[in-house]
Amino acid sequence: MSLTVKDLGENVRKLNAIVASHVGSNNSNGISHLSATDDQDGFLSAYDKQQLDMKCRYATTVNTTGNDILSYNAGLYIGRSFKNAPNSVDDSLCLVEISGAGNGLYKKIEFVWLAASKTYYRYIYSASDSGWQSTEWLSILPLNGFTGTINARKIFTPNETVVEVRVNIQNSSGLTNGAITQIGTLPSSLGVTGVTPYWTIPAQSKNTNCTINAILQSATALSVFRNEANSAGITQIWGNLMYGI
For the segment 215-229, what is each residue's pLDDT rounded down to a tens digit? Predict the structure, then answer.
């Protein structure tokens, strides 16, 4: 089969386009002629390699300090001294995971400060930015003769913020009347206005299981009360309380 000069030129052009597409040579740095992997034929572009690493939970190492987290594409990164990191984070190693939709429609950033074992979240939706939010548990001091632990934290989602409160307290005297008794004061950042959350949670009266009512008064006053008086008295209260803010 004979080829004209015109045919030869056209075939070379097509071949060049196929090779360029195959190795991803349209990257700005021109270095994407990567080797094949066990489960990927041919060559990989730099973006292909990053996506495979992310799915395998293998983080891309960021060697340059001062990289802006908000400018990153979806992926898993590890490095130090990130720009726009949460306040108080030092220059120690941090793990960042970014997921969401393209073209800036939606982005979720999970920032793990490894040295401090703290995790922060940030949600960016169109022009809305939640800022950095912490899910750290806060300790609440039990009141009115109760001892034990009361812990609270925020849980962030794209649509709302939820507060979770864990209660495990005791009172040797026993709660015997139906009056509302405050057991703790939540931080103002966990308070709620406009509604009065109400729950029924497990309790114990002289080793007998029962229930008690819990209520969040005046935005932050966590309290309990009984519907009926009991001479034995309630000596232990425990359970999880959740509400939206």
Answer: 998 889 999 998 766
